[in-house]
């Protein structure tokens, strides 16, 4: 399998998980985790910024696929198959402003905690 095929499957699965997380047939734990993984993948802001050499890209290459793998295992197979088929037809990824705000909040909280620890 080529890198391009892997990336296409990853994108298709992101879209499928997004829709499956909004499906009432999906267990609540899979829904919450699925929305978190998709929000992180779609957020323009990463926990580790891409400008940090190696680590910045490594989080996208490792965290997103591992998160997807976990969520896919939690979603009932028939629900996932239905949403994968739909995602194969329409691979448009939604944008998540809420996820961007959550990541910014995490960065601000981390910065404030670091400043507090240094001043303490």
TrEMBL record:
The keyword Transmembrane helix is assigned to this record: yes
DUF1232 domain: residues covered: 30-66
Keywords: Membrane, Transmembrane, Transmembrane helix
Gene Ontology CC annotations of this record: endomembrane system
Domain of life: Bacteria
Membrane topology: Multi-pass membrane protein
UniProt-listed Pfam families: DUF1232
InterPro entries membership: DUF1232
Bilayer-spanning residue ranges: 28-45, 51-75, 96-119
Claim: Cell membrane is one of the keywords in the record: no
Chief site of localization: membrane
Any coiled-coil regions, as ranges: none
Subcellular location: Endomembrane system
Name of protein: DUF1232 domain-containing protein
């Amino acid at each position: 399998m080529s890198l391009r095929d892997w990336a296409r499957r990853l994108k298709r699965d992101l879209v499928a998980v997004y829709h499956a997380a909004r499906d009432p047939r999906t267990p609540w734990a899979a829904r919450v985790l699925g929305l978190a993984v998709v929000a992180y993948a779609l957020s323009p802001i990463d926990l580790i910024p891409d400008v940090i050499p190696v680590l910045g890209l490594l989080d996208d290459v490792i965290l997103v696929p591992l998160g997807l793998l976990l969520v896919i295992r939690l979603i009932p197979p028939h629900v996932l198959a239905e949403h994968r088929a739909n995602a194969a037809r329409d691979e448009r990824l939604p944008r998540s402003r809420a996820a961007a705000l959550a990541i910014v909040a995490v960065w601000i909280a981390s910065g404030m905690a670091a400043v507090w620890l240094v001043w303490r």
